[in-house]
Amino acid sequence: MGHRDSPGFYQCPITPMTADHKFDIDGIRYNIDKYVEMGLDGLVVGGFIAECWNVTPSEWMRYHEIVAEANAGRLDLWTIILDPSVHLALEKMQFVEELGFNGAEVINPVVQLRTDDEIFAWFKYLTDRSNMAVCLYRTPVSGTVLSWNLMRRLADLETVIGVKQGALNRAETIKIRSLMPEGFNTMEPFEYFFLEDLRLGGTVCWGELSFMLYGKKRHLARDYINLAHQGKWEEARTKWEGLHDVREYYHDQFVWDIARTATYASALANIKAWYEAIGLKAGPILPPVADVTPQKKEEIRAKLIELGIA
Fold it and tell me: From the CB of residue 238, how many other CB atoms can be counted at a distance below 10 Å?
């Protein structure tokens, strides 16, 4: 990925686990091979969706080693940094950079630092000491949603290439894009808006799961992107509309639960069931988070078959 160039779908995959709640190394390798076959542009790993908020530091490091080894340079790799300690964040970024990762999505500190000046100083300290590209994570999950003025200041830091606009507010996305310097990527984790984003100058659908989850219909997403690049907007919209039913089901099973709770944990078990229904590896969710019930798993499988996804 160039400094401010990130095309297509950068997806956050779930982490396959064994029955005894260990990393399923073979499952991770299998899924990454499938992501390459799907034509993903990059992977953004190690955060909430990957369940890496719920592992030990040594497990976090091992997870990134497994991903880097399995990827073998095929997809652009980014990590996710959730740590409020800038020193631990830097230690992790140095570790994954040596593994071949190109950047880090970084959340602002979830404890202690709340003012614009405090948060700016945190990111300034981080970016002064790492050459990795940084994608900001603007989200209520952090406890403090980055202000527009702070975003503009952060955009001037040399290695900050964009923001995951995870506040689920379309009006704010459009406003932030208008305020940011040319080439700064204002990206939504919401495929619903991606076709419109392409028309308005957006380049990437960042940090979500839709393209992977669309199964037998994911080609429609690639089709509408290709048509958009050709300026064939009405044809592109027809392809986009072909994803309506599965898109709405994805929103109901995952996105709206995040919007309601400002957390990922409770909704993620549904996505693991979805993964298995479309032939990807998943396994159980890590405790103490509740796993999906057998009844719910069967409900999801049956619905995906009905939708022509599985």
Answer: 14
Alpha-carbon gap, residue 188 to 9, rounded angstroms: 11
Which tens digit of pLDDT belongs to each residue from 252-298?
998 878 777 767 777 899 999 999 999 999 999 999 999 999 999 99
Burial of 36 (0-12, 13-18, 19+ CB in 10 A): middle
CB 192 within 8 A of CB 168: no
Q: Helix, strand or coil for residue 308?
A: coil
Residues whose CB falls within 8 Å of the CB of residue 277, separated by 6 or more in sequence, listed in order:
300, 301, 304, 305, 309, 310
The pLDDT of residue 3 is 38
DSSP secondary structure, 140-181, as one string: GGGSSPPPHHHHHHHHTSTTEEEEEETT--HHHHHHHHHHSP
Q: Looking at residue 239, what DSSP letter applies? A: H
CB of 123 closer than 8 Å to CB of 106: yes
Average pLDDT over residues 203-217: 94
Element (H, E) at 282: none
The secondary structure of the chain in percent helix, strand, coil, rounded to multiples of 5, reads 50, 15, 35
Q: What is the pLDDT of residues 35-51, one digit of tens each?
A: 999 999 999 999 999 99
Please state the pTM of the whole predicted model: 0.92
d(CA 71, CA 78): 12
In this structure, are residues 141 and 168 in contact, taking their beta carbons and an 8 Å threshold? no
In terms of Cα–Cα distance, which of 181, 214, 241 is closest to 38?
Answer: 214
